[in-house]
Amino acid sequence: MSKAGWDAVKAAEEAAGTRGVLVAGGRVLGSIPLPPGTRIEPPIKRELPPDNVPFHRQERADGLAIDVSIAGYQRKRWSPRRNRWADVGAFDESVRQLEAKQTAVNSELAAAQEQLLQAHEDDRAQLATWVAEPHGDRPSPLAPGIEPRIADLAAERDALTTAVERVLDEKERYVTKHRGRLTREAEKACARAVERLAQAISAVEEARAEAVDCVAAQRWATEFPGERADAGSLRLEHMRGGRLTSALPDFKGLAVSVQVIEWLRDDSRWLATVLGDEQRQRDELDPHHEAIWESSPEGRKAINLANQRIAEQTAPRNVGKAGWGD
């Protein structure tokens, strides 16, 4: 809670008691009255004692280290599926080339390690033969001649890993420096794509309506003046005539074409606003996950917003447009 919020709560304490929100297990159970004069202190950020080591930096009992940097570098590999920036794609291409070299080195390293295992077995067999019948010079072992090659390949593999990490670090710095431009270009591209999607949905709606009319006309031309001339039995207003589709194996309902079109439109509108909505929700306090005081201005605002989101999620949407109305 901000300093202004705490000041408002403390001012209210002087006149009367206050109420706090009771939270357990991430769920709001209700509010509880607090007696007059109760002091409300801001939460204390606890620091680890000097002799404590954070979990991600502790050594494992089996001697293996926990390297949290791996996840960080995995995230740095992420790029849009359709990369719209050649400068960003150049970093990914460099990583791809380095990792291709590393794959080749790993293959060569694996072959050398197999060769080393076989050499150890051959050395033991030859030495055992010589010890049993020591004729001639002691056989020279083959393994020591392979081990330096393995060490060189392992060093090259590790060097390629370091090279990949350097490229990813450079990619991070580049994106951070040019984030404003990249974001603006992505926003413009998103707006154009959503507009094209909306136009395509309208075109699909018109094309399907025309196809339905053509099918009905074909049925009429084939069956007129018989009873089957009416295309109503085909249930053309339903997707696939009300039959299930393998495209949506989990969908077992009866899909009306109007509903599907409206669903696509609703999805296109969601794509246009999803990032902004997500950011707004991230900036809001959530009483289901954070302990807040109900009587404070921020607490009342957070609870109202939470109740509003619950109402929006549970209310039926587009029942009239989608054909579910009475």
Word description of this protein:
With 326 residues, the chain is mainly alpha-helical. Among the domains are: 77-177; 183-285, no CATH class. 59% of the residues lie in helices and 5% in strands. It contains seven helices and two strands. It has a two-stranded antiparallel ribbon with strand order 1-2. Strand 1 and strand 2 (27-34) form a beta hairpin. Helix 3 (86-132) packs antiparallel against helix 4 and helix 5 packs antiparallel against helix 6 (257-283). The longest helix has 47 residues, at 86-132. The two termini are 47 Å apart.
Task: Summarize this structure briefly.
The protein has 7 helices and 2 strands. The protein has 326 residues and is mainly alpha-helical.
Strand content: under 5%
Output the radius of gyration: 34 Å
Largest sheet: 2 strands, antiparallel
Distance between the termini: 47 Å
Residues in helices, as a percent range: 55-70%
Number of strands: 2
Question: What assembly state would you assign to the polypeptide chains in this entry?
Answer: single chain
User: Taking strands numbered 1, 2, ... along the chain, how are they ordered across the largest sheet?
Assistant: 1-2
Helix count from the secondary structure assignment: 7
Order of helices and strands: HEEHHHHHH
Mean pLDDT: 79
Return residue spans where pLDDT drops below 50 for at least 5 consecutive residues. 13-17, 318-326
Task: Give the CA-based shape.
Answer: extended
Computed structural class: mainly alpha
